[in-house]
From TrEMBL:
Nucleotide-binding among keywords: yes
Cell compartment(s), UniProt: Cell membrane
Enzyme Commission code(s) on record: 2.7.13.3
PANTHER family from the UniProt entry: PAC DOMAIN-CONTAINING PROTEIN (PTHR43304:SF1), PHYTOCHROME-LIKE PROTEIN CPH1 (PTHR43304)
Name used for this protein in its record: histidine kinase
Keyword Transmembrane helix tagged: no
Source organism, top-level taxon: Bacteria
Length: 1180
């Protein structure tokens, strides 16, 4: 508190002293405070008061003197002197007490020598003074020496300082006494109103003091507990353990954060955290203990409930019939179930590094990306795609997804089902029943069919349920449009009209009002069926998606309700490694790693400390606290202590534990400010000071306007602010904006005497920006007249508890999302009694949840034998593998028997009594499809056998015919060519021009006929030739083929590129030579005009096959001819353009087929072609 000069001295007494000095010394004096107020004044000269300060002009000179002195008073040594322009001297010195400037002492209106009378006569004339009276006043002005001035002012300065110092000390002593009384009253009020348990015990552990909070927690009256030992309220097990802690405390150690269990008056367990310190008498002897305790019963119960909930969720996830996944917004897989590992073949370690982009490729990847975008945009999506599994295989899966927003981060989760068998069944039945196929694709929804020609409609039972109509009642499709919401009726009518006229399918989500007046959301899908290019039928489904829409609304509400929570650790944390000598004695330790709070707690940059030896870094040998730390590192028993650390001039609270042998970690907090506070309050009541400063919760004293008046160290630690920073602010300034109104309302109600005590949860914003959840309880103290004084407030950091609650809620949300999207029935049984069931299971069986829950699961089975069979085999599988999966049958409420695939997983494999979660998938239609497929396969195999034999017989006849025709044509052709040769030699010159032209046609036709017959014979021989595979060096056989084509290569100026290190292949040498010769010959022949042919021969070899590639830069082949060119007699050019028979590629294909291989072509017009021959790497 800042004081004024008049608070330090007696003004009247000092005025009398100055008056006496003036009578003795004729000395003008005055004392002024810093605001310019004259506190005392004596001996002022008439020449100033009656002349100089009266005349406006001369008064200006006085003001200049005053201004100069005040502006230079800080330079006083010991005072400031100034000769006034009116001819006299002024002098002043500052009054400074304990370094604080309180006021100024003034003297003046004197001369150091006799004055110049003429100067003053001229001045009297100048300003119009009465000369006689003015000169008379001049004679009264004293003339003093400098020695006299110095002695007088020094005396007065010392006198003023002594008197003022005494006054200041008296004021401070009075304030200290008041503060002491106020502090004692404050701490007494704090302890009596605290919700923490505050206690004191004697050396035998018997309670000597307990605050009222003990009655609320234990149920006993205080007087029932005083005089008893703490072990009187414990079981023997806990009492034996805590007695050891009490003995350790009496041996000189403190107890902090000790978790223990007591019993209340009602016999229920009370879980507490104890903090305790020794109490010593004036001789330093231990006289007892005192401390605080904090009730954590509710928190422990919440943690145990959360653990049980986690067991249930884990068991449920493992029971899903498909694989579960949770991805973050970057597509990284962060959660999965065991089925995910078994279906994909990847281990848990491999899955932890998996991104969604690695699961799909090609069009599947595009569809999946679009579905993810839909999930992130709308909150829900589903897709079918081929999932890549370990080893290169694929699974066709149906996946759905739901968007989740948790802790400010976005995820998507869902379930994927292997639908390979279902898809195979759908493909097999698609030609026989289109309607069955489409309804199989969409299970558990209403299906309908509309015949466009007859106008007849068909509906499944589910349609009637959605419409709210009796099953089997008649209504036309057009009448069904009236159930859609009026705002959307035109849309569905238009979509239905367009599907008939344009064949345009539709998929819409719309509002719907059924016959019972229920407001629903439905998804309606219509697919056209064509015959002869016209729509003849429409098949569709109607899906009730009300639950999903409500879930999406709840998800949106949840996102707006729950914001992200952030927390950071304010304590410094450092990891160390102990250094041992060759005798295994600890000699030092090294700083391995540290957290950001290290800098905040120590003021040392983290990078300077990391990897340093402690003895070198702190310049202390041996390293600080080496004996304590090495003991923890060796025994791995944690400890904690408080210490003063000279190198940093700080006090620290240090907790030490060992993560592994030879290493230790310290968690420390700078408690220097707490120590200083303890020293300042040393004279206060020790018990109450301990309760306040060592409380396990934050405590503060706040004014009714919200200003902090006093705070404890726990609150500073909790919020990250220093005590000084908090005392200069209000609780509103650090309260989360959404909680300010709630806080102010509670304060206002208390001030208005509606309630002096209030409690609620709120958020504070820490200095580092983190948000913490707290439980605030406050009591308003009033004076004797009922006026509000201040609030005593207790603030408990419940961030972890709130996180647990939020985590539990998030887990419930995730569980609800999983149960909602899972296309299976889900339930929980304990001792085979149904405890929980989902809507899908109820709808599957036709029961309500109320009809199932509480009944034995025997209700689900068609007979007791099936019930007992499942019980035996399911639990055998659970004992062997931890989960059980088998096929069984369920009996619906209407008596219908359905086939079920059931998977079961216990909540705790070690204790089946806790319950078993199960999933049930209706596979009735799949079983029917499998039976139909089996029948179709038998019929198909029979037909294929017959047709194969017919083709084989036909091929033999064709090959024999071709061979016979080719062979029989060779003899007459040789005669034609022989006689033509004779005519050419002997009679060609005798032919006219027309005859020569016609004769040329005969020769060309004969040669072409010879080539054709030769190719036909080669083609027919291929089927008769035996295949003798061997290992063939590709470079060698390619060289032989190129030698045979050397003349064609030279004539066309072709460039042939052959790598020097082609691998070996397995083939028949003759057939492979024919393949290469035909393909290379074609590449040379069909080159682009004006472009020299360039041909590349290459081989790609893997474990199973070798792929021979012939790549050219020729004319290319149109896409529509890629398959035709391998047929016999297929040509793309005339004989005039390119000679040939049209059999070459047919021979190549037959030779490749004989080798057990495949041939394919990739080509682009005017750019070239690539022929790929794929041969197996096997001699068989």
């Amino acid at each position: 508190m800042k004081h004024k000069l008049q608070d330090l001295i007696d003004i009247k007494q000092f005025q009398s002293l100055q008056d006496m000095m003036n009578e003795v010394y004729s000395f003008t004096t005055a004392i002024l405070d810093l605001e310019g107020n004259i506190l005392t004044a004596s001996g002022w000269q008439d020449i100033c008061t009656k002349f100089h300060r009266v005349n406006p002009e001369s008064c200006k000179k006085c003001a200049i003197s005053d201004s100069y002195i005040l502006s230079h008073i800080h330079e006083a040594n010991p005072g400031v002197r100034y000769k006034c322009m009116n001819g006299m001297y002024d002098y002043a010195f500052p009054i400074i007490i304990d370094g604080t400037h309180y006021g100024n002492f003034f003297t003046g209106q004197f001369f150091f020598e006799k004055p110049d009378v003429k100067f003053f006569i001229d001045q009297a004339k100048k300003y119009g003074f009465d000369e006689v009276e003015y000169l008379q006043a001049l004679e009264n002005v004293p003339v003093i020496t400098e020695e006299r001035l110095n002695s007088l002012t020094l005396f007065l300065k010392e006198l003023i300082q002594i008197i003022s110092s005494v006054g200041l000390r008296n004021i401070k002593q009075t304030e200290a006494n008041s503060a002491l009384i106020e502090s004692q009253e404050l701490y007494h009020d704090l302890v009596e109103t605290a919700q923490d348990l505050i206690w004191q015990a004697d050396a035998d552990g018997r309670y000597t003091y307990l605050n009222p909070a003990w009655e609320d927690v234990f149920g006993y009256k205080i007087e029932e507990m005083i005089g008893k030992r703490f072990v009187d309220f414990q079981t023997k097990e806990w009492a034996d353990r805590d007695l050891k802690e009490f003995e350790r405390l009496l041996d000189g150690n403190t107890v902090k954060g000790l978790e223990t269990v007591h019993l209340g008056k009602n016999g229920k367990e009370i879980r507490l955290i104890f903090n305790a310190k020794q109490v010593r008498d004036i001789n330093g002897k231990i006289s007892g203990t005192r401390g605080t305790a904090f009730d954590i019963t509710e928190r422990k119960q919440a943690e145990e409930a959360l653990a049980q909930e986690k067991l249930f969720i884990e068991a449920l996830l493992e029971s899903l019939p498909g694989y579960l996944y949770v991805y973050d917004d970057q597509g990284n897989l962060i959660r999965w179930n065991k089925k995910h590992e078994t279906m994909t073949g990847y281990s848990a370690e491999e899955l932890s590094h998996m991104n969604i982009s690695k699961w799909f490729e090609g069009d599947d990847a595009i569809r999946v990306a679009a579905s993810i975008e839909e999930v992130m945009t709308t909150g829900y999506g589903e897709v079918e795609a081929n999932l890549l599994i370990k080893g290169g295989g694929k699974l066709l899966v149906h996946s759905n997804g739901v968007r989740l927003n948790l802790n400010g981060k976005t995820y998507f989760t869902g379930v994927g089902l292997d639908i390979t068998e279902r898809k195979q069944a759908e493909k097999a039945l698609i030609e026989s029943e289109v309607f069955l196929k489409q309804t199989q694709e969409i299970s558990k929804v209403g299906g309908w069919s509309y015949n466009v020609v007859s106008g007849e409609s068909k509906f499944t039972d589910e349609i009637y349920k959605i419409y709210g109509l009796p099953i089997g009642s008649h209504f036309e499709t057009e009448e069904g449009m009236k159930f859609y919401h009026p705002d959307e009726r035109e849309i569905i009518t238009d979509a239905f009209s367009k599907i008939i006229t344009d064949g345009k399918a539709y998929d819409l989500e719309m509002r719907f009002v059924n016959a019972s007046g229920e407001n629903l959301w439905v998804r309606t899908i219509g697919e056209p069926v064509f015959e002869g290019g016209k729509v003849v039928k429409i098949n569709g489904i109607l899906m009730d998606i009300t639950d999903r829409k409500q879930a999406e609304d709840k998800l949106i509400e949840s996102e707006s309700k729950y914001t992200s929570l952030f927390a950071s650790m304010n304590e410094g944390v450092v990891l160390h490694e102990v250094i041992y000598d060759n005798k295994n004695k600890a000699v030092d330790y090294r700083i391995i790693d540290l957290n950001p709070a290290f800098e905040m707690q120590t003021g040392i940059q983290a990078e300077k400390a990391r990897k340093q030896l402690a003895s070198e870094f702190y310049a202390i040998t041996p390293a600080p606290y080496l004996d304590i730390y090495s003991k923890v590192a060796n025994t791995r028993e944690p400890t904690e202590f408080e210490t003063y650390f000279p190198p940093l001039n700080k006090h620290f609270s240090i907790s030490v534990f060992s993560p592994k042998k030879g290493m230790f970690a310290t968690v420390f907090t700078d408690i220097t400010e707490n120590k200083l506070n303890q020293e300042r309050l040393a004279k206060s009541e020790v018990l109450f000071r301990t309760a306040f400063e060592n409380s396990a919760v934050g405590m503060c004293l706040t004014a009714t306007d919200g200003k902090f008046l006093k705070v404890n160290s726990k609150l500073c630690e909790m919020l990250g602010y220093s005590s000084k920073e908090l005392l200069n602010t209000t609780f509103q300034e650090i309260t989360h904006p959404d909680d300010i109104d709630k806080s102010n309302t509670s304060v206002a109600k208390a001030v208005d005497k509606q309630s002096d005590v209030f409690r609620f949860d709120k958020r504070y914003i820490c200095k580092n920006g983190a948000v913490i959840w707290t439980e605030v309880s406050a009591s308003l103290l009033r004076d004797h007249d009922g006026r509000s004084l201040y609030f005593i407030t207790h603030i408990v950091d419940i961030t972890e508890r709130h996180r647990a609650v939020v985590a539990l809620k998030n887990r419930e949300d995730r569980l609800s999302a999983i149960i909602r999207v899972a296309p299976t029935g889900i339930g929980l049984v304990i001792n085979r009694v149904l405890i929980e069931v989902n809507d899908v299971l109820c709808n599957m069986l036709g029961y309500s949840a109320e009809e199932l829950i509480g009944n034995n699961s025997l209700l689900l089975y068609p007979d007791k034998a099936e019930y007992e069979y499942v019980g035996v085999h399911k639990y055998e599988q659970i004992k062997e593998r931890g989960t059980g999966t088998l096929e069984t049958r369920f009996k619906k409420k209407n008596g219908e028997i359905i086939d079920i695939l059931m998977s079961s997983t216990p909540l705790d494999i070690c204790d089946l009594k806790l319950g078993v979660a199960f999933t049930a998938l209706d596979i009735t239609e799949r079983r029917k499809a499998q039976l139909e497929i089996q029948e179709l396969n038998k019929d198909l195999e029979h037909r294929v056998t017959i047709r194969t034999q017919e083709l084989a017989d036909s091929n033999k006849e064709l090959e024999s015919f071709v061979y016979s025709v080719s062979h029989d044509l060779r003899a007459p052709l040789r005669s034609i060519m022989g006689f033509s040769e004779i005519i050419s030699r002997r009679h060609f010159s005798s032919l006219n021009e027309e005859g020569k032209e016609y004769f040329g046609y005969v020769l060309a036709a004969s040669k072409n006929m010879a080539n054709l017959i030769e190719d036909l014979l080669r083609f027919s021989r291929l089927s008769k030739k035996s295949v003798d595979k061997e290992t063939i060096e590709m470079n060698g056989i390619v060289e032989q083929v190129l030698q045979s084509l050397n003349e064609d290569i030279l004539q066309s100026n072709a460039k042939i590129v052959v790598p020097a290190d082609l691998p070996t292949v397995y083939a028949d040498r003759s057939l492979l030579g024919q393949i290469l010769s035909n393909l290379i010959s074609n590449a040379i022949k069909y080159h682009r005009k004006g472009v020299d042919p360039e041909i590349i021969i290459d081989v790609d070899k893997n474990e199973e096959t070798s792929i021979i590639k012939i790549i050219d830069n020729g004319q290319g082949i149109p896409n529509e001819h890629h398959e035709k060119i391998f047929n016999i007699f297929q040509r793309l050019h005339s004989s005039e353009e390119y000679p040939g028979t049209g059999i070459g590629l047919c021979i190549v294909k037959k030779a490749v087929t004989s080798l057990g291989g495949k041939i394919a072509v990739e080509s682009e017009l005017n750019k070239g072609s690539t022929f790929s021959v794929e041969l197996p790497n096997s001699l068989l």
